[in-house]
Amino acid sequence: MHSDTRLISIWFFIGILLVCYGVLIFAASWYYAANPPANPVVLADLHIGIWWGLMILVIGIFYTWKFRPGKHNG
After folding, report:
1. Distance between CA atoms of 31 and 49, rounded to whole angstroms?
2. How many Å separate Cα 61 from the centre of its chain?
3. I need a surface site. Which of 12, 21, 24, 50 has the fewest CB within 10 A?
4. What pLDDT does residue 1 have?
5. Would the pLDDT of 74 be above 70?
6. Is residue 72 helix, strand or coil?
7. Which residue from 66, 42, 54, 50 is spatially nearest to 18, judged by alpha carbons?
């Protein structure tokens, strides 16, 4: 017997997780860029957290779109 059940790729869930992490890192870094601490760290003016959050967010959106359920991934 062959059932026609569709499996959801693990990469879809990893994409969702990366989107969540990207949003959290971006939001926290945006907050600290707008409200800098009294003693900033070295190279704080680069705002690496904003760039890192955006990169993770873009990768997560790509994975979520590429491996979305209902799309043939083969």
Report:
1. 10
2. 7
3. 24
4. 54
5. no
6. coil
7. 54
Listed by start position, the domains of the chain span 10-66
Q: How many Å apart are CA 25 and CA 19, to the nearest integer?
A: 10
Q: How far is CA 69 from the centre of its chain?
A: 18
CB-CB contact of 25 with 53 (8 Å): yes
pTM of the model: 0.83
- Two tokens, residue 65: 């779109």
Summary count for the chain: helices (H), strands (E)? 2, 0
